[in-house]
Specification:
Blueprint: H1 27-46
């Protein structure tokens, strides 16, 4: 995606597949995904 957008070295935070479409996430699923993603996002923003 970064290469296609013209920024090949742009860091992405990836999550495991499969994650169902977000329009049908329960509150528990949102919390689980946040627990997985937030540390990686924080690391990217503060490095």
């Amino acid at each position: 995606m970064g290469r296609l957008s013209g920024v090949p070295d742009y860091p992405f935070v990836l999550i495991d597949y499969p994650v169902i479409p977000m329009a049908i996430w329960s509150k528990d699923e949102i919390q689980d995904l946040a627990r997985e993603v937030v540390p990686a996002v924080r690391a990217r923003l503060t490095s």
